[in-house]
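WARN  no MSA supplied for this record, continuing single-sequence
INFO  ligand: zinc ion
INFO  echoing inputs
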Amino acid sequence: MANRKQVVVPKDRPFVIEVLQAQEEYSGKPVGLWIGHSRFQCPSFVLDYAGGSPARVVLSLYDRAQGHSYSSKHIGTLTFKVRAETLAERTGLTVAQVYRSQVILERDNRLYRRQPLSKASRTFLGNEVTLLLPQRTKQGQLVNNPISTAPKKPGLLSENGMRDYIVIPQDTLPAIKQVSRHGLAVLLAAMEAITKAGTGTESARITKPELRHISGLGLVAFRKGFRECLSQKLLAFSDNVLTVHDPHKRRPTQRWRNRRAELFHQRKKFAFDLNERTADDYRSLLTKVLNTDCSDIPEDDWHRIWPCPLCLNEQNGKITKRPTFAVHIEPSVAGFHCYLCGAKGKLIQLAAQVLGISTSDAIEYFRLLLNPPVQEPEEVAVQI
Ligand SMILES: [Zn+2]
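INFO  complex generated
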């Protein structure tokens, strides 16, 4: 739209207040780790590898395992094919490093590999991997059991009865390709800390020595890794409050806002459709938004209104008395334009601009206007 000038909303208009209150309610960050991010659970034993190549392979394997498990049809042992070349590409390691890491992980009973051979050429087709999780038997012995699939479930490890895991957003994986092993050890320790803190946010109260202890690094290596994470803006730390950033944006995650908007959108699609609005609906909307009686506006043509609610018919300090602003309330048009300021668009966009809210909130405003909340109290509060 050509003109972005906004009119200050009189806050005492009841519906405006309602929308503003609703906005305030939604602006609170919901409790939960990495809301709006694709995420996976990685066993905390990844910390044993202090950010080395096996840690990168574990991360990549558990990320893939989550995908395989989610899309599986039945509950059963989770086994999937992995090409070393693919793992190398995803982790930034060389193929040789991937092979060595797999050998180490196999030695540590973290996974079990089968290496099928092609009958024709006898060449290497790829690994078939089964991931193993340490579990305690009734006799108190630690045994390593294969992971079971959990179809349509987002938490593979919790579904497998494991509690010792780190919640990791998927976009960490491309980000850590650039990070040194010390940096990775610190980042994983930080993610472990916020997961175990259980505060439902990406921040936790922790001291540097405690964080170093989790990372398993020596003092010098820890300092190096910690500095790297801070300078790369993967972490923030002040007054013993550690925050793990959105690895993509390098600042505290804001994705829960998108998710809110997303849910909001989906809900509206079913509850309130702009395509089903009538001319009368638009008459009510304009009456409210423009604070003038619009109940007699004809439906079949453009109708002039003075002043334009966006430019207030002011140009170079002078007020033009000529009505330059027109609306069309026939639902298939539902538009407005102003010859003076050049603003044009849909009526719902006009409402958004005049009220100083987003178009999506204006639609909600429109919905509330036509269906006052008393009739549908359960629709007003948005639960995440
Ligand atoms: Zn105008």
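The domain at 14-28+273-379 is CATH 3.90.580 (DNA Primase; Chain A).
INFO  checksum written, moving to next record
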